[in-house]
């Protein structure tokens, strides 16, 4: 069985559309009782009402951040083993999309992370640089490695001349 998720490599240039804009990456710092904190990209699993993976991305970003995104471009896919209910095994395919933050109102957050939180979900921003990414425990490790190797390429996915 395959579980599909949609996750946002969510970048904000503070309204600067220029090619040398200083991007920040919006992350969620997760802290669970008795565990070290870690940082994740906004997103989550597809639900039956999601017609596409991109639709799931928009729903998840709205739920977790009260946010709207634009310029959604596929960037990276990560496939990992996934334990399912009743000890069955499958894979989880995580689709990572680079996208630009259009708006965010944290007072509009809703959904299970807000209504029935397991630990804390703190929205944070880091510089979208190798140093910024290295400064947090970003998961999954494959995403951290991808961003470290491809940060200029990820920025280029939001360039005006991409088409």
TrEMBL record:
<dbReference type="InterPro" id="IPR000086">
    <property type="entry name" value="NUDIX_hydrolase_dom"/>
</dbReference>
<feature type="domain" description="Nudix hydrolase">
    <location>
        <begin position="1"/>
        <end position="147"/>
    </location>
</feature>
<protein>
    <recommendedName>
        <fullName>Nudix hydrolase domain-containing protein</fullName>
    </recommendedName>
</protein>
<comment type="similarity">
    <text>Belongs to the Nudix hydrolase family.</text>
</comment>
<dbReference type="InterPro" id="IPR015797">
    <property type="entry name" value="NUDIX_hydrolase-like_dom_sf"/>
</dbReference>
<dbReference type="Pfam" id="PF00293">
    <property type="entry name" value="NUDIX"/>
</dbReference>
């Amino acid at each position: 069985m395959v579980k599909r998720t949609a996750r946002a490599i969510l970048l904000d240039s503070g309204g600067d559309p220029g090619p040398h804009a200083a991007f920040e990456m919006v992350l969620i710092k997760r802290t669970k009782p008795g565990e070290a904190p870690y940082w994740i990209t906004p997103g989550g699993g597809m639900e039956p009402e999601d017609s596409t993976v991109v639709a799931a991305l928009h729903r998840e970003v709205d739920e977790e951040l009260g946010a709207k995104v634009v310029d959604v471009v596929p960037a990276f896919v990560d496939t990992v083993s996934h334990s399912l209910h009743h000890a069955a095994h499958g894979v989880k395919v995580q689709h990572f999309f680079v996208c630009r933050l259009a708006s965010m109102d944290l007072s509009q957050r809703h959904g299970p992370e807000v209504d029935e939180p397991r630990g804390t979900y703190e929205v944070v921003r880091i510089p979208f640089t190798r140093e910024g990414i290295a400064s947090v425990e970003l998961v999954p490790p494959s995403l951290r490695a991808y961003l470290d190797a491809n940060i200029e390429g990820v920025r280029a996915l939001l360039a005006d001349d991409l088409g």
